[in-house]
Specification:
Blueprint lengths: L10 H5 L1 H11 L4 H5 L5 E4 L14 E16 L4 E9 L4 E7 L4 H6 L5 E11 L2 E5 L2 E4 L10 H8 L2 E4 L8 H11 L12 H6 L5 H9 L4 H32 L12 H8 L6 H14 L6 E6 L5 H14 L3 E5 L3 H15 L16 E5 L5 H13 L2 E6 L13 E7 L6 H8 L7 E6 L4 H9 L3 E5 L9 E7 L4 H16 L3 E5 L6 H18 L9 H10 L7 E4 L5 H12 L5 E4 L12 E6 L7 H8 L9 E7 L6 H11 L3 H12 L25 H17 L7 H10 L2 H9 L1
Parallel strand pairs: 4-6, 9-14, 9-15, 10-12, 10-13, 11-12, 13-14, 16-21, 17-19, 17-20, 18-19, 20-21
Antiparallel strand pairs: 1-8, 2-3, 2-5, 3-4, 5-6, 5-7
C-alpha cells in the first residue's frame, strides 16, 4: 500500500479526534499541510504589551496584557457574584468578567501586576468592550509550576506567534499542535522553479515554514513572509495564465460593425456627445470583438458613468455583423427599466420589421419569468429566427427552451448578482463561445481581487457625463441624537416642496407572514446572541409610520420584491412620472433605476448594508441637474466598526476607493472559489490591496512559465501545488470564467 505523503496525513492521526474535529469544523484545517499553512496572524515580543485600543468587536482575539485590578461584585441580594478584572497595555484598558463558580480560579491566579495571554470573543456591555469568561495562560515568572505555561515558555522563545483562533481552540493550543507537525515541513514540495527562487533570492519552502512558525528574529519572519506571499501569488497567477492561454485557443466569430449600419445610424441620432472615457472604452471593446477568440472583459464604471450606453453600442456592433446580443439583468425591475430606456434611446431603430420602423433597425425583446404566455412565445420565436437582434432579460434567458439564431455577445449587468454557472449557461447558447462583457458599478471584493489578479481584461469609466450633480452624504446617529433623525424627515419634506422626490430604503419587507417565518427559525439563536438587538426596520411598517407621522400629507408608496411584477412596474412608472413623492423600498431599487427628479434618499439601518450596496443605492439620487442628498441612519455607537464603515461611505463618492475599503475590511474571499463574503480565503499571507506589486511581478513570471510549458510537464512540484489549489469544484469554476 502506498504511504500517505507527510503533508497529506490527516490531523486526527497526529492530534487526536477532538482537536482535529474543532480544527476541521471551525478553521477548515484537515491535513498536516493545512496546519503548516495556517500562519500566525502576528507575533508578540516578551515585555511588549498588545494594543488593546485596536480590538475588533465580535471577533475571537488573543491578547497579552497585565492585570491592573480585580474586584468581586455581588448582585441579587448577595446571591450572585461577578469578578471584574481590568487588564492594560499602557495605551488602553479592557474589562474581563467572570460569573458564578467560574470566579474562584481567576480570582486566585490573576493578581494585580501578573501577566498572561487571554483569549475570548470581544463583546460590548454598557458601551464598554469586554471579554466574558476568557481562557488564559499565565506568562513567564507569573506561571505556576506544572501549568501549561511551561510549554508556552518553551515554544515562545523571543517571539510568541499569535494564531487565528476560534472558540474551543486558543492560539497557544494551536501553537502546540503546530509543534507536533513541524518536522513534516522538511517534506514540503517546492512549487517555485529553481531558477525563479534563486534569481529572486528566496529561502527554500521547508525553511520558510520553519521560520514563519518558530522565528528567532524579525528577519526570520520577513524572509518567510516574502517567500510565502510569492508562493500564493505565483501559483494563483499560473492558474489564471493557463486559463487565459486556453481561452486564447478557443474559436469565436469576429464581430465588426458594418459601415453605414445600425451603429452609425444610432450614433447619428444621439442628442449628446459621448465622454472621452466612453469613446476610449468603446474602442477597447470593438478591438476585442474584432478578434477570433472570445472577449472576456470587465467594464467597471462609477454609478451613472454611462456603462449602459457603452454596452448598447457594443451590442449594436454585434447586430451589425449579423449576430445577436443578450443583456442579463439581476431583477425584473432592472430588466424592464433597461428595455424601456434602450428602446427609447434607439427610437425607430428598435422597431426593425415593424411598420414605421427603420430599415437598418432590429427588434428589441424583453424576456422575464413573469411574462404572459403569448408575449413569451413571440419573444422566443423572435430569438430563434434571428428577427430580434437584442434581448434584455433576467435569468429566464438561461432556461433550456431559450434558443438563439446566432448569439454573438453576452452582457452581464451587475456581475456579482449572478453565479458563474448562470453566466456559463447563457454563454453555452452560442454556436461558438460568444464574447462576454461584465459590468459593475462598485467592484465587490472578489471582483476587485480577480481584477488585480488580471483574470479579466479591464476597462474603467471614471468620468461622469455632463449634467450629473454631486451627492452630499451624512451619517444620522438616531440613537445618540434623535433630533438628527427628525431633521432628516424635514429635509425630505423640503425636497418635495421644491418639486423633487425621495427614496426611503429599509433592509426588510416586513409583514405578518414573513415575521412568523423569521421568528420561528431564528428566535432561539437571536435570544442567545442578541438579546437587546431589535429586528431590522421593514418597508411596510416604516411606510405606514411615515405616512401617519413625519411625512403626513405626502404621497407615500412602497416597492419590494414580493409584489407582482405588473404592480412593481406600475409603481415605478408612477414614481418616474412624478405622481409619487416618497418611495419606501427594499434594495430592489439598488441598480439601474433612473429617476432624475429624485434628489433625496434616507437609508434606514444603514449599518445592515455592505459598503458596495450603500454606494449603489446612493447612486439613485443626483441623477439630474439638482444636487443629491443621501442620509445614512444608524443606531450603532460611535466607536463601532459599523459606524467607521458608514463614515467611509459618507466621506467619498469614489466607488473604486470604497471597493478598496470594502476589500480591506472583508478580505478577498476565496479568489478562485465561490465564496464572496471574504470568509473563506485561499490567501493566507497575501493581501490583494497591499501586495499589488508582488502580484504584478508574479503574473509576469507566470506568463513566461506557461508560455514555455503550458502543461507544466517540466515542473511537477508546481503541478502538484496547482492540483491542491484547484480541487475539482474550483477547476470547473475557473473554467467557466
Amino acid at each position: 500500500m502506498d504511504r500517505v505523503p507527510a503533508l497529506e496525513e490527516p490531523l486526527k492521526k497526529l492530534l487526536g479526534g477532538p482537536t482535529a474535529k474543532v480544527m476541521a469544523e471551525h478553521l477548515d484545517l484537515h491535513t498536516v499541510g493545512d496546519l503548516l499553512h495556517h500562519y500566525p496572524r502576528r507575533y508578540e515580543e516578551r515585555g511588549q504589551l498588545t494594543k488593546l485600543a485596536e480590538l475588533p468587536l465580535d471577533e475571537d482575539v488573543t491578547v497579552v496584557a497585565q492585570v491592573a485590578d480585580a474586584r468581586v461584585h455581588t448582585f441579587n441580594g448577595g446571591r450572585g457574584q461577578r469578578l471584574e478584572i481590568t487588564i492594560t497595555d499602557g495605551s488602553g484598558r479592557l474589562q474581563l468578567v467572570f460569573f458564578g463558580r467560574g470566579i474562584h480560579k481567576p480570582h486566585k491566579e490573576l493578581l494585580p501586576g501578573s501577566r498572561a495571554m487571554f483569549a475570548g470573543k470581544v463583546s460590548m456591555f454598557n458601551r464598554r468592550m469586554q471579554l466574558a469568561h476568557p481562557t488564559y495562560a499565565k506568562l513567564g515568572a507569573d506561571a505556576a509550576e506544572g501549568e501549561d505555561t511551561a510549554d508556552i515558555d518553551s515554544w515562545a522563545g523571543a517571539l510568541i506567534p499569535i494564531y487565528p483562533a476560534c472558540k474551543g481552540l486558543e492560539s497557544w493550543k494551536i501553537a502546540k499542535a503546530v509543534d507536533a507537525v513541524l518536522p513534516s515541513a522538511q517534506e514540503a514540495v517546492d512549487p517555485l522553479p529553481d531558477s525563479l527562487r534563486e534569481g529572486r533570492g528566496f529561502v527554500p519552502l521547508p525553511e520558510a515554514l520553519l521560520k514563519v512558525h518558530r522565528p528567532h528574529t524579525k528577519a526570520d519572519i520577513e524572509d518567510a513572509r516574502q517567500r510565502l506571499k510569492w508562493d500564493e501569488a505565483f501559483v494563483l497567477q499560473v492558474a489564471l495564465a493557463r486559463r487565459r492561454h486556453a481561452d486564447g485557443q478557443l474559436p469565436a466569430v469576429a464581430r465588426r460593425p458594418a459601415p453605414g449600419g445600425l451603429l452609425d445610424a444610432f450614433d447619428a441620432k444621439l442628442p449628446f456627445t459621448l465622454t472621452e472615457g466612453q469613446e476610449k472604452v468603446s474602442e477597447e471593446i470593438f478591438d476585442d470583438l474584432a478578434t477570433e477568440h472570445p472577449m472576456h472583459r470587465l467594464l467597471q464604471g462609477e454609478v451613472g458613468s454611462g456603462k449602459t450606453m457603452v454596452a448598447l453600442r457594443a451590442m449594436l456592433a454585434v447586430v451589425d455583423s449579423g449576430g445577436q446580443a443578450a443583456m442579463l439583468a439581476p431583477t425584473e425591475v432592472l430588466a424592464q427599466q433597461h428595455h424601456r430606456s434602450i428602446t427609447e434611446m434607439m427610437g425607430e431603430l428598435a422597431e426593425g420589421g415593424l411598420l414605421g420602423g427603420s430599415e437598418q433597425g432590429t427588434k428589441v425583446v424583453l424576456l422575464t419569468g413573469s411574462m404572459g404566455m403569448p408575449a413569451r412565445r413571440q419573444a422566443l420565436l423572435d430569438l430563434v429566427t434571428g428577427e430580434a437582434g437584442l434581448v434584455i432579460g433576467t435569468h429566464a434567458l438561461i432556461e433550456d427552451k431559450v434558443q438563439f439564431h446566432d448569439l454573438g455577445l453576452v452582457v452581464v449587468d451587475e456581475q456579482h448578482r449572478f453565479g458563474v454557472e448562470q453566466r456559463d449557461a447563457l454563454r453555452g447558447k452560442g454556436k461558438q463561445p460568444p464574447h462576454l462583457l461584465v459590468m459593475t458599478a462598485t467592484p465587490i471584493p472578489r471582483t476587485v481581487a480577480m481584477t488585480v489578479f488580471g483574470d479579466l481584461e479591464t476597462s474603467v469609466l471614471d468620468q461622469l457625463p455632463a449634467g450629473r450633480s454631486p451627492i452630499a452624504s451624512h451619517v444620522v446617529p438616531a440613537q445618540d441624537k434623535p433630533h438628527f433623525l427628525a431633521r432628516a424627515w424635514e429635509r425630505v419634506r423640503e425636497e418635495v416642496d421644491k418639486g423633487h422626490q425621495a427614496y426611503v430604503v429599509c433592509p426588510r419587507i416586513g409583514d405578518d407572514e414573513e415575521e412568523a417565518k423569521t421568528a420561528k427559525g431564528k428566535k432561539k439563536a437571536e435570544e442567545a446572541e442578541t438579546a437587546d438587538k431589535r429586528p431590522p426596520l421593514a418597508v411596510i411598517e416604516t411606510a405606514g409610520q411615515l405616512a401617519k407621522g413625519p411625512l403626513q400629507g405626502l404621497r407615500v408608496e412602497i416597492l419590494h420584491g414580493r409584489m407582482q411584477p405588473d404592480d412593481k412596474d406600475a409603481v415605478m412608472r408612477r414614481f418616474g412620472a412624478g405622481e409619487v413623492d416618497v418611495l419606501v423600498a427594499t434594495t430592489v431599487i439598488e441598480v439601474g433605476v433612473n429617476v432624475p427628479n429624485a434628489t433625496a434618499m434616507v437609508i434606514m439601518d444603514a449599518d445592515r448594508f455592505g459598503v458596495s450596496q450603500l454606494h449603489q443605492l446612493r447612486g439613485r439620487v443626483g441623477r439630474g441637474s439638482a444636487p443629491g442628498l443621501c442620509l445614512l441612519v444608524t443606531d450603532m455607537p460611535e466607536a463601532s466598526p459599523a459606524r467607521a464603515r458608514l463614515n467611509a461611505v459618507a466621506g467619498t463618492l469614489d466607488g473604486f476607493e470604497l471597493s478598496r475599503i470594502d476589500l480591506e475590511q472583508r478580505r478577498e474571499g476565496d479568489v478562485l472559489g465561490q465564496a464572496q463574503s471574504g470568509v473563506r480565503s485561499s490567501l493566507r499571507m497575501l493581501t490583494v490591496i497591499d501586495d499589488e506589486e508582488v502580484i504584478a511581478a508574479a503574473r509576469e513570471e507566470a506568463v513566461t512559465v506557461v508560455a514555455a510549458d503550458p502543461d507544466l510537464e517540466r515542473l511537477p512540484g508546481l503541478r502538484t501545488e496547482l492540483d491542491a489549489l484547484l480541487d475539482k469544484d474550483r477547476e470547473q469554476y475557473l473554467d467557466k470564467g
